[in-house]
Amino acid sequence: MLQPDTTPATSGPSLLKPPNWCDQPLPEDADITAAHPMNSGRNDLYTEAMRLVGARRSKAGLVELVTWLLLKAECVSGKR
Questions:
Q1: Where does 2-77 have alpha helices with state H?
Q2: What is the pLDDT of residues 23-68, one digit of tens each?
Q3: Residue 35 in contact with residue 45, Cβ under 8 Å?
Q4: What is the pLDDT of residues 1-33, one digit of tens each?
Q5: Of 71, 69, 36, which Cα lies nearest the Cα of 52?
Q6: Backbone angles phi, psi at 55, to 5 degrees
Q7: What percent of the chain clears pLDDT 90, i.e. is strictly above it?
Q8: What is the rounded distance in angstroms from the CA atom of residue 63 to the CA atom of residue 59?
Q9: What are the structural domain ranges in the chain?
Q10: How high is the pLDDT of residue 48?
Q11: How far apart, in whole angstroms, are the C-alpha atoms of residue 36 and residue 32?
Q12: Alpha-carbon gap, residue 5 to 7, rounded angstroms
């Protein structure tokens, strides 16, 4: 009777290079840093952002949230 192979894998994508969990650079990074409440004094906005982001558990949910915010910003600025 054949036994299952229990030899540990020595290759494959996850063993060659660990995933990069760090934030990737964006052109908006300086503006994002400036919007932090330590820089902007807008603790109310940070609290609301934490509430909105905290309600989403998936990346898809965060993308939907950001899409909604971008659409809302366009409507307010009259771009749409």
A1: 13-16, 29-35, 37-40, 43-54, 59-77
A2: 999 999 999 999 999 999 999 999 999 999 999 999 999 999 999 9
A3: yes
A4: 666 666 665 555 556 777 788 899 999 999 999
A5: 69
A6: -80, -15
A7: 66
A8: 6
A9: 33-80
A10: 97
A11: 7
A12: 6
pLDDT at 8: 60
What is the residue whose two structure tokens read 């820089």? 39
Tally of residues, the chain: 80
C-alpha distances (whole Å) from 16 to each of 6, 7, 19, 24, 40 are 20, 17, 10, 20, 42
Report residue 80 as tokens: 């749409």
| Range 68-79 burial, b when 16+ CB lie within 10 A, else e | eeeeeeeeeeee
Q: How far does Cα 36 stand from its chain's mean position? A: 16
